[in-house]
Amino acid sequence: MRKILAIDAGGTSSRAVLLDESGACSGFGRASGGNPTAVGVAGAVDALALAAERALGGQTPSPTSDSLVVIALAGTATPPFITLLESRLAGLGLAGRTVIEPDLLGTFCSGTPLVEGYAVIAGTGTIAARISDGQIHTVKGGSGWLLGDAGSGFWIGQQVARAVVASLDGLGPATTLTQLLLEATGIERTGARSRGRSEELSRLVHELYALRPVELARFAPLAFQALDVSPADPVAREILEAAAEAIARVLSAAREPEFGDTSVPGVVVLGGSVLAAGLARAPAIFTDALQDALGGAELVPVEDGIVGAAVLAFRHLGLEVDPALHRRLTAEIDGARARAGVA
Amino acid sequence: MRKILAIDAGGTSSRAVLLDESGACSGFGRASGGNPTAVGVAGAVDALALAAERALGGQTPSPTSDSLVVIALAGTATPPFITLLESRLAGLGLAGRTVIEPDLLGTFCSGTPLVEGYAVIAGTGTIAARISDGQIHTVKGGSGWLLGDAGSGFWIGQQVARAVVASLDGLGPATTLTQLLLEATGIERTGARSRGRSEELSRLVHELYALRPVELARFAPLAFQALDVSPADPVAREILEAAAEAIARVLSAAREPEFGDTSVPGVVVLGGSVLAAGLARAPAIFTDALQDALGGAELVPVEDGIVGAAVLAFRHLGLEVDPALHRRLTAEIDGARARAGVA
């Protein structure tokens, strides 16, 4: 029987599953970030090979060309990346075809067997796509932390940091975020001043510039935490409302009438850490904004793109993925994930 | 007669003047950035020594301890910087005392002989100070490009870039800025699409990420240029209005009542490239916002902090700088600057 390996290569973590043509899943493997743009070609190939090895359960069968590997990946896969990856996979007995698919398509297919609709990811970045006939038709957003990606984890984390700096400097209102960020960075409030400034402000600014800019994403959870502590905190609420609106705007742009898309076909599949947290912890803010953006379309949140990578693999083999097979793949992969002890 | 050398050490350019105790200025020198935080200790010392050498007019007199060098500088001067700088100045015959003063004080004293008031700089960053009894009393803003500095050159340039990226992506309104930024980056509009995106958007994003983030400041002038081309352009107008408001907010924060400052003593001296451009090219936006912030106080724009560095040098010698001497220093330095052929 043909070996099918599906991989979801993320910026900070990657997943792989081993499947047969019936949809049975016999292995789940997890590893660190496998996106070559985020971690470099060598690091990405190492991570993806490790996830694959773990999904294979330690077996290294004799090389066979009767295998298919489908990898859902953001951005561009360069020839050096593909060459190195194929050589490593061949060493694991997967010498057959390797196909790279957009992560947006992996996310979409994780949530639905349909071939029409939208995928929105808000995690490291904010990006949305119109899916038509099972392919990416239009992509919106995804311009990165410096030029776009409003509503992403970086963006929320930066807004949190800027709001606290402004508040400590008397340029912005008081907010629960201040205490949370000072705790997260291990800075005590002393009230002391030097050179005309508060000492905790100077220390906070120093600590935050010691990070790489994108690492500000680690403070995004503080916005949700602030609302748990003080549901009325206007600063945290404004940041999350602006994030939800920005994500909804990217989704709306994917259905601009210029693309002949005045109705709303299919479902809207939602992925990424910000949308997961937003729907679970601030549903009044996030669900409303997204419902407004698509006029009541069905919203389907997904954990990641691994089921979608499996769906795409089946389609590459010419097999139809009907709702029953989609449910089976989802249940099989969830079961393997649970057995692998990986949340 | 005692040699007085005053230096204004900026992030991108530095100025030095040679004075005697009567206020006569016999030399003006200019060099590149002399701020050790911005360009490193060695580069900053090289630039300041070169500016000093040019102000000395090529003379290298025998070392004398009867000299005073006053340097107006943003941020902290570390001991290695001061040691290296003093050794280089001694080599130029300036073996006497070297004093570092805050650039905010240099800016303030460039505009007024008074010892009470405010200084606001909006250039590389956005920062304001309350000056009391001739000293910095309170500093607001200046938290840098990632955490603060709304209204700075970086901030305006980033807003320009983000607005154009959003517009090309269908996430924001059309704006004159698009044509200006595409011209500035040498990108032609083709209307072609690949991978679900417009090609000029992909190329622009690629070009802009090839810069260091802070280099986005070079696009700040496009906001003013857009208003020249299309005075009603709402995107450029909103960016400049938000910049002026942010600068005014930093100024307002410097007079918070918690510092016992409910009235508005003295003048408000304005420095930095954004304020210079704002007052000259969009006065309706900038003057109004700043007047509102200080209830009609007198606004004094200055070109840089070199006159202020000279004023501070005179004060360090125990000499009073009255309005007549302030006018004389300003006129002498302007004359030397013109003779040196440096705008």
Describe the structure.
The structure is a homodimer of 343-residue chains. By secondary structure, chain A is of the alpha/beta class. Chain A contains 14 helices and 12 strands. Chain A has helices at residues 36-39, 41-55, 79-91, 103-111, 144-147, 153-168, 176-184, 199-209, 221-229, 234-253, 273-281, 283-294, 306-316, 323-339; strands spanning 3-9, 13-19, 25-32, 67-73, 97-102, 117-122, 126-132, 135-141, 193-194, 197-198, 267-271, 299-301. Chain A has a 5-stranded mixed beta sheet. In chain A, a hairpin with a 2-residue loop joins strand 9 and strand 10 (197-198). In chain A, helix 9 (221-229) crosses helix 10, helix 10 (234-253) runs parallel beside helix 12 (283-294) and helix 11 (273-281) crosses helix 12. The first copy, chain A, is globular and about 70 Å long. The interface between A and B is medium-sized, with 34 and 35 residues.
